């Protein structure tokens, strides 16, 4: 299984929640996983109900079987200072540049530099080793930018490599792109069973494939259970007022006639949603990548919910 797991998705699909659940799933049975945030939203800290993540690796959870989940919020400015020290040995001079505002200028204005720093730091974490020689982490999970930006975010290293023909920047960008396009990386897209997210997922996968970036799977999030069987779904579109009224009366519900219309409306809405979801599942099947589903968490995405989602991912074979 790929050691760098990149999770993207249309806004509102719960990609950060899925990334966190995936990190827990991959850490099961004694593995070590690093969950990386690159957008500066501190969404991971909120999910795990911990204080804001610093620019350093911190353990935030223990997975079933003794595995551990660490988290890191990558800051572009700090990453650039690391880069300047690594390649140019600037040390205190780099800190002086930060005080002068040059670091902020470079990460905000210079084309592609910010994304190179963010992806480069994540790739560095994948290759990080302990003193005994083994990898520090079995897997690195990146909570990446939304689907509409993911291909450019990951492929920007190619653009920078084209601008800098020689030198450390060129070699760094080329090394990052080789890793991101290798089997060691997988890009997963999170969606809902709704038309717009599914279409954006389809478009996103097409863009990733065109850029030769490795597509992993589609994870359908917040799937609600079906409360009607197939026969009931078909029947919900008909006129059954009398039958519903008789049934309510037969079980002793007083004033049941007032409930007939609301019940029929809810049944029709549910039937409509089931048909819509069926059509979106067909569309996802046509994309041609593995698809997994996660249930809707009625109580919200708290820590208990994350463990539930991680267990469901394991049950479906993700990370097993």
TrEMBL record:
Pfam family, one: ArsA_ATPase
Domain ArsA/GET3 Anion-transporting ATPase-like: 5-178
InterPro entries: ArsA/GET3_ATPase-like (IPR025723), ATPase_ArsA/GET3 (IPR016300), P-loop_NTPase (IPR027417)
Gene3D superfamilies (UniProt xref): P-loop containing nucleotide triphosphate hydrolases (3.40.50.300)
The organism's place on the tree of life at top rank: Bacteria
Protein name as annotated: ArsA-related P-loop ATPase
Species for this entry: Streptomyces roseicoloratus
